[in-house]
């Protein structure tokens, strides 16, 4: 709908413009306002969401796990995209040309591509980390330290920087000229569709294929362990039942005290024939009540047994609690990883499909569709913090505490 205020403003200026041109100007202004509102809102949400991730990691000590260090690195890359990339690209779209000069153009592109590639590399590292944690729980988790995680994060950012920054900044000096027009901003060495196609394969399709394969292997291993646990519980239950039955039969058979299990009656008769007085003494001892020392010994034995049983039960409960906490953390990590990978594929796939189409059919993709696809890649940085909150209760409660100013600001 064309803004009536815009038409009234143009009429008052006294410009000698026809009505159709006035309407075109107003439509452009209205579209620009809508674009600024939508992209500005997404930028604010992206910045706030990823700052919440960084503050949560600082505030809540339970979030300082090795896996969450990778999420912290991912949030830092997303924060750069939300702060810088989104706003500069919106300005470029609305103005219709690049007005900040070639130096800032190359700097923006370098930072944008390095941060985006770092996001992909961090996702790869997270996928490999989850894969080795599930498939090699004993050997890998001993090596899974904070120092190792920081090293992997440093490698992810270093590789991303080496792959993109020098080529973007210095390609014009390598070929001897700058072929990008002053009013435009794009990567010079990606002017050929085949080059763009190869970079899309390396930067998106190959990492996505590896992530999908690793996630499938993780799923298979998790299902296999669940089946093994069910079968193990079933076998343990039948073993305990057989043991209980055998113990009950032993109690029924061995309820009386037998001096000689081979021939108890003969033994009693021989004792009686040998020494009647001794036999009477034995009988009197058997018939007399136990002494106080004997009673005390029996009482202490019962107390010790009860105390040992109590300690054993408490230790078993603690072990089960830790196992349950470990399983819960594994489930949280798996849910978070699956949500992040799904969001990454959904937001990056449209643009990379257009890259493939453009390789074989140039001028088939409208400029508006290119802009939407490129912007959708940025939206991935908006969605990631939501994935943490939806899939991880600790992140969710910490986000809520920060937004409601409940706790922890004195620790910052």
A few lines on this structure:
Residues 49-388 form the G-protein coupled receptors family 1 profile domain. The protein is an all-alpha fold and 412 residues long.
Notes on the structure:
The chain is mainly α. It has a domain at 61-227 and 330-411: Rhopdopsin 7-helix transmembrane proteins. Helices cover 83% and strands 0% of the residues. The chain has helices at 4-13, 19-59, 66-95, 101-135, 137-143, 146-175, 193-253, 264-274, 276-287, 292-360, 367-391, 393-403. Helix 2 (19-59) runs parallel beside helix 11 (367-391) and helix 4 (101-135) crosses helix 10 (292-360). It is elongated, with a radius of gyration of 37 Å. The two termini are 48 Å apart. The model is unreliable at 1-5 and 248-288 (pLDDT under 50). This is Muscarinic acetylcholine receptor. Belongs to the G-protein coupled receptor 1 family. Muscarinic acetylcholine receptor subfamily. One of its GO terms (biological process) is G protein-coupled receptor signaling pathway, coupled to cyclic nucleotide second messenger. Pfam families: 7tm_1.
């Amino acid at each position: 709908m064309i803004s009536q205020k815009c038409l009234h403003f143009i009429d008052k200026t006294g410009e000698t413009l026809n009505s159709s041109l006035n309407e075109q100007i107003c439509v452009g202004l209205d579209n620009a306002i809508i674009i600024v509102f939508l992209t500005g809102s997404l930028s604010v949400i992206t910045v706030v969401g990823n700052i919440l991730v960084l503050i949560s990691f600082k505030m809540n000590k339970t979030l300082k796990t090795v896996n969450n260090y990778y999420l912290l690195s991912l949030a830092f890359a997303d924060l750069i995209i939300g702060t810088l990339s989104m706003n500069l690209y919106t300005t470029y779209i609305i103005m219709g040309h690049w007005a900040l000069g070639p130096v800032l153009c190359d700097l923006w592109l370098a930072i944008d591509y390095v941060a985006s590639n770092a996001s992909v590399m961090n996702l790869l590292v997270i996928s490999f980390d989850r894969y080795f944690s599930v498939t090699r729980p004993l050997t890998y988790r001993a090596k899974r330290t904070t120092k190792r995680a920081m090293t992997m994060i440093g490698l992810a950012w270093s590789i991303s920087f080496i792959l993109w920054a020098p080529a973007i900044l210095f390609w014009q000096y390598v070929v001897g000229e700058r072929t990008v027009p002053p009013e435009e901003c794009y990567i010079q060495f990606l002017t050929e569709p085949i080059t763009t196609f190869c970079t899309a394969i390396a930067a998106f399709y190959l990492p996505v294929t590896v992530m999908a394969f690793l996630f499938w292997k993780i799923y298979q291993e998790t299902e296999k362990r669940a089946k093994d646990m069910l079968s193990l519980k079933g076998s343990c239950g039948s073993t305990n039942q057989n043991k209980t039955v055998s113990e009950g039969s032993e109690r029924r058979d061995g309820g009386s005290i037998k001096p000689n299990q081979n021939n108890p009656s003969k033994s009693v008769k021989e004792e009686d024939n040998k020494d009647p007085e001794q036999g009477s003494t034995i009988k009197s001892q058997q018939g007399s009540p136990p002494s106080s020392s004997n009673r005390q010994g029996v009482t202490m034995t019962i107390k010790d047994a009860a105390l040992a049983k109590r300690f054993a039960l408490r230790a078993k409960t603690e072990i089960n609690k830790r196992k349950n906490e470990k399983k819960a953390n594994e489930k949280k990590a798996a849910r978070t990883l699956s949500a992040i990978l799904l969001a990454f594929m959904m937001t990056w796939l449209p643009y990379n499909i257009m890259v493939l189409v453009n390789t074989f059919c140039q001028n088939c993709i409208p400029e508006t569709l290119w802009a939407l696809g490129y912007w959708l890649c940025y939206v991935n940085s908006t969605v990631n913090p939501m994935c943490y909150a939806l899939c991880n209760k600790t992140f969710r409660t910490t986000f809520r505490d920060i937004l409601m100013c409940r706790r922890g600001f004195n620790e910052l």
